[in-house]
Amino acid sequence: MAAMEPRIQYAQTKDGVSIAYWKMGSGPPTIHLPPMIWGHLQLELAHPEWRTWHDALAERLTVVRFDVPGTGLSDRDVADFSLSRLAEYVDAVADHLQLDRFALLAPIDTGPLGITYAVERSERVSHLVLYCTYAATSTTGKGSGSFKGARRLLEENWEIYARTSTSVAFGWTSQEAAWWADFMQESVTHENYLQFFNSRRDWDATALLAKVTVPTQVVQRRQVEVPNVAVARELAAKIPNAQLAVVEGRVTTPFTGDMQSLAATHCDFITQGAAEPSDDPSATLSPFRTVLFTDVEGSTALTQRLGDVKARDLLREHERITREQLRAHGGAEVKTMGDGFMASFGSATQALECAIALQRAFAGGVGAPLAAPGEGDAPSPGASPIRIRIGLNAGEPVAEDEDLFGTAVILAARIAAKADGGEIFVSNVIRELVAGKEFLFSDLGDTELRGFEDPVRLYEVRWRE
User: Fold this and answer.
1) 289-371+382-461 adopts what CATH topology?
2) How confident is the model over 313-323, as pLDDT tens digits?
3) Fewest C-beta atoms under 10 Å: which of 382, 386, 391, 426?
4) Spatial distance between the Cα atoms of 441 and 462, rounded to a whole number of angstroms
5) Please, which residues bridge with residue 461 across strands?
6) Which positions ≥6 away from 353 have C-beta within 8 Å?
7) Closest to 427 (Cα-Cα) out of 449, 406, 405
8) Residue 45 to residue 8: CA distance in whole angstroms
9) Kind and range of the H or E element at 309?
């Protein structure tokens, strides 16, 4: 059944500025900031892919979208795009809808606004999601030396600027770029866009990153060049306890590419802890998870060869890199066992990408300077003395006391134990979950695993380029 068309309604600021908005869906309230600040609610709903994106979010969230005054269907007679004024517009919509607390989804150009609002109104924000965005315009190149040339074109010819900027920004076909250029010119006047253009250049919420206290998720599409993965990693590193999820995709607009997976990434994060607690104390099953085990091959021999101090330094570097890759791929560390990790993921794809990234990191020379020279079994120059085995399985583990238990977990551990250093072994469940994702597998056949009566079909992930 087709989703109902949301009604466009109006809220007002304390000084009487009208703000167009719509609301649809059910679940935790979430204000979805306009991706480019300027926008047009009616035209967005008429765009098939854009509408599908909103519907995907609305299956699990109560989504609220509004047009910033000066654009779209809101009052056009104002054009104040300062971060403080934009935050007041969020307040006005939330107050009108009587939202005491809500999640804030800040995509593309709205990162500085989302960060500012989450710090200055932390009592109102339940979750902050930063998607393909930044803290300061200067980090994206939008505030660089190209600013003067872009502004000159904007001042001289609004239509040519619109068509040029959308073609460069989205890299789409001429027809799609033309739609975006028309959308821009329908959404905002030349004068108001010039005001936005000048204001955006000064946006900088970098100093506020360390002050963000609300649960934060940083999501970045891997192949997007502006802003790129490095910008996302810096955001996640500077925001306390932020989660970083790197997903596939080449275009910033969320409704292109694998939008369903992206919507699920946002919804999973925002709905964490939103369900009512069960009255049944035995109801401890977690959601379906992918479980990953790592283990350092020959850790005892490594200690004997390098000595306690150097071996511990090497393992500490191993721990740092493993945790870094878990953060980068949306993994949650369940526990560490001295020379290995147990982690869980909501996505089998992200878990496999993390496993591959780990093997490539250790194959690339991690800790090589610590290797003892001159020994017959010492690694070759540039190679890492650390080799890890990795095993993955998926299922519904039992969650208890911040740990995971059950058959799905035991099987993942047994699979890891079958691998050698530098290898990634997975169950058939994992292979089926990532079908069509361009991973390469070698069939290892049915394998006897300790504690399991029947043989288990295993596959090796071919990760070397």
Assistant:
1) Alpha-Beta Plaits (3.30.70)
2) 777 778 888 88
3) 382
4) 6
5) 441
6) 246, 329
7) 449
8) 10
9) helix 308-328
pTM of the shown model: 0.59
User: What's the CA dihedral at 167, 172, 173, 178 to 10 degrees?
Assistant: -50
Exposure string (b/e) for 33-68, b if CB count within 10 Å is 16 or more? bbbbbbbbbebbbeeeebbebbebbbebbbbbbbbb
Sign (positive or negative) of CA dihedral 252, 253, 259, 265: positive
CA distance 212 to 117: 10
- With a CB cutoff of 8 Å and minimum separation 6, the contacts of 145 are none
E strand or H helix at 58, and its extent?
helix 48-58
Nearest C-alpha neighbor of 136 from the set 219, 211, 244, 231:
231
More confident residue, 333 or 152: 333
% helix / strand / coil in the chain, to the nearest 5?
A: 40, 20, 35
Q: Are strands 424-427 and 125-131 parallel, antiparallel or unpaired?
A: unpaired
**What residue segments make up the domains of the chain, in order of their start?**
9-270, 289-371+382-461
Please report, for residues 189, 190, 253, 369, 449, the alpha-carbon distance to residue 70 in angstroms, rounded to integers and kept in the order given: 8, 11, 22, 58, 65
Provide the token pair at 443.
């069939």
Confidence category of residue 417, pLDDT binned at 50, 70, 90? very high
Q: Which CATH architecture has domain 9-270?
A: 3-Layer(aba) Sandwich (3.40)
